[in-house]
Amino acid sequence: EVELVQSGAEVKKPGESLKISCKGSAYTFTTFWIGWVRQMPGKGLEWMGIIYPGDSDTRYSPSFQGQVTISADKSINTAYLHWSSLKASDTAMYFCATLVVEGGYFNYWGQGTPLTVSS
Amino acid sequence: SYELTQPPSVSVPPGQTARITCSGDALPKQYAYWYQQKPGQAPVLVIYKDSERPSGIPGRFSGSSSGTTVTLTISGVQAEDEADYYCQSADSSGTNYVFGTGTKVTVL
């Protein structure tokens, strides 16, 4: 069964940098694109962007372009979400998920990484 | 930017039918998908390509599409169906994905 395991909870200060990870297993990592989804406290799901691990082709939601960087290392079956300078408004749960491009939907999800940004 | 609109909440007695709508201008052109999210958990896909059900999803979940509105129907609602439900699709270009505003289903 496809599994995505995300890195653990993070507590950071405004201005700090951070990279969280999403490791895939039980499938060929280049089979699916990987997407990142934000869920702010008590709010809905927001698509942030996607990456194809095979060649690192990346697409961002206009709302998140320039705010985060998505990358992947296919040699270790891992995708990443990176912030260079965190803000308090980045406090949220972040999910990774595999994307079926032909349909445009997310079929397998990671467990989520909670991020708290506070001074 | 493109938006998918859902009712904030739906309440239904156990055994009855819950219907959740999702409206968006590009829905006649793009497939819709539905996810169930229980508190503290990751979303789970319950309907894909408007009306297809993934393996392992109970038959009481079904989807339909008509024009700019898609509908998730839960027939014979059970207590375990209490959750948030999100539709998801793409804009008319197919390059940007979007989630609906979400609907909280309460089983009375």
Structure notes:
The complex is a heterodimer of chains A (119) and B (108). Chain A has 119 residues and is mainly β. Chain A has strands spanning 3-6, 10-12, 18-25, 33-39, 45-52, 57-60, 69-73, 78-83, 92-100, 105-109, 113-117. In chain A, strands 2, 4, 5, 6, 9, 10 and 11 form a seven-stranded mixed sheet that branches. Chain A has a four-stranded antiparallel sheet with strand order 1-3-8-7, with no helix packed on it. Chain A is globular and about 40 Å long. The N and C termini of chain A lie far apart (40 Å). In chain A, 39% of the residues are buried. Chain B has 108 residues and is mainly β. Chain B is built from no helices and nine strands. In chain B, strands 1, 3, 4, 7, 8 and 9 form a six-stranded mixed sheet that branches. In chain B, strands 2-6-5 form a three-stranded antiparallel sheet, with no helix packed on it. The mean pLDDT of chain B is 96.
Features:
heterodimer; A: 119 residues; mainly beta; seven-stranded mixed β-sheet; 0% helix; globular; B: 108 residues; six-stranded mixed β-sheet; three-stranded antiparallel β-sheet; 9 strands
Give me the number of helical elements of chain B: 0
H/E series of chain A: EEEEEEEEEEE
Class from secondary-structure proportions of chain A: mainly beta
Largest sheet of chain B: 6 strands, mixed
The gross shape of chain A turns out to be globular
Q: Total number of helical segments of chain A?
A: 0
Terminal Cα span of chain B? 36 Å
Ranges of chain B where pLDDT stays below 50 over 5 or more residues in a row are none
Span of the ends, CA to CA of chain A: 40 Å
Approximate strand percentage of chain B: 35-45%
Strand content of chain A: over 45%
SSE topology string of chain B: EEEEEEEEE
How many strand units of chain A?
11
* Helical content of chain A (DSSP H or I, runs of 4+): under 10%
What is the overall pLDDT average of chain B?
Answer: 96
The largest interface is: A-B, 23 and 27 residues
The whole-angstrom Rg of chain B is: 13 Å
